[in-house]
Amino acid sequence: MGDSLLVVHGGGPTAVLNASLYGAVVKAKAYPQIKHIYGARNGTGGFLREDLIELGQIPEKELELLLQTPGSAIGTSRDALEQEEYDKMVEILLKRGIGYVLFNGGNGTMDACGRLYKTCQEKGLDIRVMGIPKTMDNDIAITDHSPGFGSAARYIAQSVREVCADVRGLPIHVVVVEASGRNAGWITAASALAGDAGGDGPDLIYLPERPFDEEQYIEDVKKLLEKKKGIVVVASEGLTNQEGKPIVEPIFRTERATYFGDVSTHLAKLVIERLGYKARGEKPGLLGRASILLQSPIDREEAKLAGELACQAVLEGESGKMVAFRRISENPYRMEPFLVAIDEVMMHEATMPDIFINERGNGVTEAFKDWCRPLLGEELPGMLSLN
Question: Given 79, 87, 126, 137, which residue is catalytic?
Answer without folding.
Answer: 137
